[in-house]
Amino acid sequence: MVSKGRQVGLGQRFSETKWRPSDVSHVKINTDGATSGQQQNFGMGAMARDHVGNVVAAMACKGQGAMAAEIAEACSLNKALQLAQGLSFDRIILESNCANIITAMQNDSPSMNSTLGLIISDSKMLMTSFLSCRFQHIRREGNSVAHELAKRAIQAEVDEYWVADIPELIAQFVMRDKSNI
User: Fold this and answer.
1) Residue 137 CA: distances (Å) to CA of 19, 113, 161, 175
2) pLDDT tens per residue across span 50-60
3) What is the pTM for the complete model shown?
4) Closest among 36, 41, 60, 47 to 174, alpha carbons compared
5) pLDDT for 57-89, tens place per residue?
6) Do the Cβ atoms of 32 and 149 come closer than 8 Å?
């Protein structure tokens, strides 16, 4: 789909099991949401990497309230779009292991009138600020770094953002992904 000189895409038609780098012109951002049964909050994780798999930016942010997993996933994708916008990325690929959220972002029809629908609508507005914005589904096995960041966010006292330099614990997951390329 092309709109106002901007490319917004449907992404790939199959789901990767392993993380793969983007093409040279795009930053790939993996997102994940995590919920906690005992705590009244949820975690949002995102990892942005370049075409060779090097970390560009990452985040681990906590949301307040007990949310359904799908809403946590949508919030994470929305927060990742905000991060990309704040860092002035102009060409991005967003990956999530939540197929329903990816499908909703790829769909041209208006979002449903619900909490989830409002988050999707806001995310669709954000995506218009990029020259190119594509969405792809990835299986959980290929989204482990974002998942670890989302789990970390649940326990964190404050939201955490990193540019280029990430904690050693997360770096281990990134290195594992890169070794699979």
Assistant:
1) 11, 24, 24, 21
2) 998 888 999 99
3) 0.86
4) 47
5) 999 999 988 888 999 999 999 999 999 999 999
6) yes
